[in-house]
Amino acid sequence: MDPITHALVGLAAGSFSGSGSVLENPLALGCLIGSVIPDGDIIMQYWGDYAYLKNHRGASHSLVGISVLSAAAAFLIDFIFPGNNFWSIFLWTFIGCMTHIGLDIFNSYGAKIFWPLYDKKIGTGLMLSFDPFLIAAAAIVYGFNSSNLMYTEMSVAAFVCYLLFRQYRKVRVRSILIRNIDVPVCRIVLLPSLTGFFTWDFIAYSDQEILTGYISMFARKLEIRDRLKKSESWVNDLVMDTRLGQFFKDFSQEYHISWEVLSDGVQQVTMTDLRYYIRNRYMHHATVQFNKEMKPVESVFHPYRDGRNAKVPI
Asked: The whole model's pTM is what?
């Protein structure tokens, strides 16, 4: 989710802590700070795209991490607003952090909420990164919670119904895809499209290939974008023995590996993250080049767009 959405949801949650503006209510201020502070891992961008994306939504988005962050923020707020109960400030700051993690889990990128016990991102792929229904519901709660509880209850109920509707349509669309794709598939991944509010992107796995495309939420239009041949197992093993291969596998569980021979006997493996497709290309790629002896000689991460490269140690 974007920072504005996180902050607005934090303000809405903090409005339940009592009256007064955010600058007068340390509990609401803690909730607001908590709703955005997990994204403080953006500091890793100082060391480049590879370092940032390797750590984003990792430790700072875990229960352990937000406990530490909530305590630090609560100490600071308690220092600025003396005479308040530290544990109350900590609780509301922690609630703000939980709204942040909860929203991140609802989209396709996910978060490592159980780090370090479970070092995988958990994500449902249910909501868009920028969701107008969520923004509207949070704005109504924040604007009317102290004056008219009915509006708050109605907006929360409407948003819950919206999530249930999206989940229902997701299940229905998956069953329609299974019936209409022309090859037997063993697994289908549905993700909110980056370019259409009522569109799902899909990744369908068969024995021999990976199909990607999109389908409307109401299944009125289905288009297969690419049919990608699966690479041989020895190619997968070769690239996964590299540092970049291990990173990319952790970065995205939905990827495709291709192999090509370049000049002078150099051979290149390209890994493509299949989750995000925009402007006629997949957003994230990585390449590892091997010499004639099949030893890696160069590995580069290509995030976001063409021309943005981050070299990774072999």
From this structure: 0.91
C-alpha dist (Å) from residue 36 to 5, 140, 193, 250, 290 = 9, 20, 24, 24, 42
Mean local confidence (pLDDT), 102-130: 92
Read off the pLDDT of residues 22-49 as tens digits, 9 standing for 90 and up: 888 999 999 999 999 999 999 999 999 9
**Greatest distance between any 2 Cα atoms in the chain:** 73
Distance separating alpha carbons of residues 267 and 288, to the nearest angstrom: 8
The DSSP bridge partners found for residue 288 are: 269, 299
Integer Cα distance of 110 and 104 in angstroms: 6
* Segments making up each domain of the chain, as ranges: 3-147, 164-228, 231-311
**Upstream peptide bond of 303 is cis (omega within 30 degrees of 0):** no
Question: Residue 200 in contact with residue 214, Cβ under 8 Å?
Answer: yes
User: What is the pLDDT at residue 146?
Assistant: 63
